[in-house]
Every structure is written in structure tokens, then in C-alpha cells.
Amino acid sequence: MSPRAPAPPLVIWGATGQCLVLHEFLCPELFRLMAVFDNDPMAVSPLPDVPIHRGLAGLRAWSKQDMLAQTHFLVAIGGARGADRSEISRILLDHGLVPAQAAHPAAHVARDAVLGLGAQILCRAVVASRAVLGDWCIVNTAASVDHECSLAEGVHIGPGATLCGLVTVESCAFVGAGAVVLPRIRIGAGAVVGAGAVVTRDVPPGAVVAGNPARELPRKRTHV
Fold this sequence. Notes:
Strand content: 25-35%
Largest sheet: 8 strands, mixed
Number of helices: 3
CATH class of the largest domain: Mainly Beta
Helix content: 10-25%
Strand order of the largest sheet: 6-9-12-15-18-21-23-24
Structural class: alpha/beta
CATH topology of the largest domain: UDP N-Acetylglucosamine Acyltransferase, domain 1
């Protein structure tokens, strides 16, 4: 029997609980976690045997160690920070790192679903037939993305949330834990659907909605 090839190296940006979740099912069988990165100067590595590097300066210093060859990455920044996740992912791409995909063995991804770069599909999540996920999307624990849904770049579907069929979610929107989005609804770019909300009509870009049925919350005024 030929020796098993070593698992490829991986780095995770984000010293958060999401990092722990990804590490638990990806390492060491699928990847070897080499380092954690975070912009917070006070952040500590959630894994005591894995070093942490801070910000772009830390990335540049780490990259000088010739650690980049075939190193994969995931960005563990969730919630309504899809734009940050997308931006950091593009920076890591520019440094020559390779985007990983992370689908938990207890998740279901249909054969005809499409997953973009850096997709994260967590335990008991479902991505159903002909669903299309753009780059840097997260489908969290026990969330359901039903048939023919379309998720743009940087979308995060929170734990236990349900997207019924043919839902469209535009870039960097966030659907909170336990929310339900009815069929053929469109969630606008950068919108936030509150936890437990039931969305019965389209949500405008940048809006925050909550309740059952979900209603738009007043936007904060900015003073000049």
C-alpha cells in the first residue's frame, strides 16, 4: 500500500468560534491548519497549538517564510460582515493562497447544486437541487437553502434559517438564526433579516427587517 499523501496546509482568517467549528471537521484529515489570522490586535488563537498572526502586516511577515505554496484558506468572519469576508478573501487570493471549500460530512449538498469559492456548509445544513451559491457564502448549522435558490457573493445564512424555493439573496446580505424566507422572495444587497423573522415580501437593499411577518426597522439617521 502506497503511503498516504499529507493533507494540504490551511490558514483561517478569524480567531472566532467559526474557526473552531471549521477546524473540528476539516483537520487533520482534510487539511493541516498552519496559522490563524485576525485584525484584532487583542485576538488570541482559539487553538493553543496553532500560531496567530495579526492583520496584513502579519500576513506579509508570514508569507516571507515561503509558506504559501498550495496553502488553502477560509475566512471565518460571519454575520452581517459579508463585505469584510469578501474583501479579505480577495486579499488572500492576491497573495497566492488557494480558496478551500468546507462541507461538513453531515451536511447535504445536492449533486446539481453549485458552490462558489470558499463556501462553508456546516453540520446538518442542506443545499438543495439547483441552488447556486456565489463566492464566500456561509450556510450555517442546520440551515436550509432549498431548490433553485440563488445566493450572491458574501451571503451568510444563519443557524436553523430556512430559505424556501427560488429565493434570491443579493451580495453580503445576512439571514439570521431561525428566520424563514418564503418562496420567490428577494433579499437585497447588504440587508439583514433578524433572528426568527418570517419574510413574506421582498427586502430592499440595506434594510433591516424583523418580526412575523417581517417589517423594516427604521434606519438610523446620520448627522452631517
